Amino acid sequence: MQPMIRFLSIVSLCCFAVFQSNAQTPYLEKDVIIRSGTYAYEELFKLISNQTGVVFSYTGFDDKQRISVKFDRQPLRIVLNTLFNNGNCTWKLKGKYVIVNCKSVTKPKPENAVASKSTIVVNGYILNAEDSTEIVESSVYLRQPKQSAITNEYGYFNMSFPKTADVLSISVAKEDFKDTTVVIVSKQQNTLVIYLQPKSAPISVLMNDSIRVTLSIDSVKPAETLIKDTTPVISPFWKRFGERRANLRNISDTLFTNVSFSLFPPISTNRLLSVNTVNKFSFNLLVGSSKGIDVFELGGLVNFDYGNVKYVQIGGLANLVSGTSTGVQVGGLINTVGKEVNGVQVAGLVNLDRGKVKSVQVAGIANLVKDTVTAVQIGGIANLNHSYTKGVQVAGIYNHSKNVFGGQIAGIANVGDTVSGAQISGLVNSARVIHGFQLSGLLNRAGKVKGSQLGFLNVADSITGIPVGFLSFVKTGYHKVELASDENLLTTLSFRTGVDAFHNILLGGVQIAGGRSLWTFGYGVGSAVRLGKKWYLDLDLTAQQLYLNNTTFSYNLLTKSFIGIEYRFGKNFSIAAGPTLNWYSSETTDPEMDPIWSKISQKTLENSVAGNYSNQLWIGAKLALRFF
């Protein structure tokens, strides 16, 4: 017994669900089936009422008159338009009641009535030619008056517009379906049922008597498309933009107009077809949308263009272009272009471009380009290029480009992969390869340098020129440890780094004599000039501070200039010797001056006192051993 009850419950639920689904369908979208024949209107009303649930109400209408019809699952709307299309009667739906009125009325207007004799109403359904299913969100439009409608969930559309011609060409488009054009002789009321053929409709090919192969049109592509797909990659923003606009997805035709005015879409002279229309001149009070601009566009807030723009475009806040911008583009905050920029681009905040940029870019904050740049870029904060730059990048803080043919100037940092030209920054320059020079206030870093570096710190793997700075390190360059002694037996240990032509010297030393040690530390620069295969001429200039152990720090500076001969026994060992010219300067008020001077006292060429400082000058010598 229980299985039977469970079965009946399931059947009841299914029937209830079917009833509910049917009840939720609007009356005008319910299907009507009437076999071919000649019927009295009274009989047709009963059949229609039984199938749809509507009730007919009429006065002054002869329901005994007969009409020949056939309806094969047609929506009630089509059936009513057919029944009352040729008479002087009109209908309207109020609730479940179909009110038929055969008197002239202006208010309220029936659904299929028109405002005046000069107004055209076109409505109907768009169906799939293969299975007669409704096609949702298909585009129905007239090119010249820029009128359009989008079919609803039942494939229904309705348009009314002023009559401009006796013959109308109505276009229907839907993505993945073939475009269709219907020509009608215009009258006040037109009810259409239009069938669209899918693009992927299969083609049957008979191979022999027993084998049939079915091919899809979409599966047959030209050979070149199989080798390489040249379709440009659309940005996620414009992809979403297209997905939300049925006319843009459906209509492949491009419409044109000379002048367009817009408050914001779709309140525009181009109406819902604005995204399918290229304008010569476009004036948008707030927001405008088009498929492109041929001459000029002015927008109070934002300009959206799903196409190319030329020659002048001005947006109070932003210009958003999916195609190419040619000419001058000015945005109060943002400019973004999906393809190339050929001309001048100025933005209060950011220029964001996915394609090539040629000419000039100016942004209050940043210029960001995914493709190549052949232009002058000026960014208040940064310029960021994913590909190469042929020109100059100028930024208040930071420049970045994969390859640079020209120059980079930044307040803080420049970064490039290969740079042919100059990098100039307040703090840091970095490149993998540079053909030119780097100038920075703090650090220059590069792999291969064909040129020079000038900065506080210079680092490179190899360099053909000279790195000039407080400290330079070249991986394949000059770096040695030196142990040296002079005429005062002041022994120093120094590190020499850079290149042969110019290197930095960091030194420290000590002299142990008389019970208290004399210490020294200092800095210098040097150069080694090749004289032969293993012989070099050394030129050094160093300055070193002297002080005694356990004493307070005071001014005691010894400056040495050295001219010597260096012999390199091999890569890791050399010896150098030669004369020095020494200049010692110290404070006369320092009580430690005399003990220090007694440790380095020499026969002087000059011995003088000027104010609180004493100066001594003499000739000495240095012998040095160098390693590594």
Q: What is the topology?
A:
Elements: H1 2-24, E1 31-40, H2 41-52, E2 55-59, E3 66-75, H3 76-83, E4 90-94, E5 97-101, E6 119-128, E7 139-142, E8 147-150, E9 156-162, E10 167-173, E11 180-185, E12 189-196, E13 202-206, E14 212-216, H4 223-227, H5 236-243, H6 246-250, E15 255-264, E16 267-268, E17 277-284, E18 287-299, E19 302-315, E20 318-321, E21 325-331, E22 334-337, E23 341-347, E24 350-353, E25 357-363, E26 366-369, E27 373-379, E28 382-395, E29 398-410, E30 413-425, E31 428-440, E32 443-454, E33 457-463, E34 467-468, E35 471-474, E36 478-486, E37 491-498, E38 503-513, E39 516-530, E40 535-548, E41 556-570, E42 573-587, H7 593-600, E43 606-610, E44 613-627
Parallel strand pairs: 2-5, 6-12, 15-17, 17-18, 18-19, 19-20, 19-21, 20-22, 21-23, 22-24, 23-25, 24-26, 25-27, 26-28, 27-28, 28-29, 29-30, 30-31, 31-32, 32-33, 32-34, 33-35
Antiparallel strand pairs: 1-3, 4-5, 6-9, 7-8, 7-10, 10-11, 13-14, 15-16, 36-37, 36-44, 37-38, 38-39, 39-40, 40-41, 41-42, 42-44, 43-44
Describe the structure.
Helices cover 11% and strands 58% of the residues. It has 628 residues and is mainly beta. It folds into five domains: 25-113, DotD protein (Phage tail protein beta-alpha-beta fold, 3-Layer(bab) Sandwich), CATH 3.55.50.60; 115-203 and 238-253, Carboxypeptidase-like, regulatory domain (Immunoglobulin-like); 256-374, no CATH class; 381-476; 478-627, Porin. A ten-stranded parallel β-barrel has the order 19-20-22-24-26-28-27-25-23-21. A hairpin with a 2-residue loop joins strand 15 and strand 16. The model is unreliable at 14-22, 105-116 and 203-232 (pLDDT under 50).
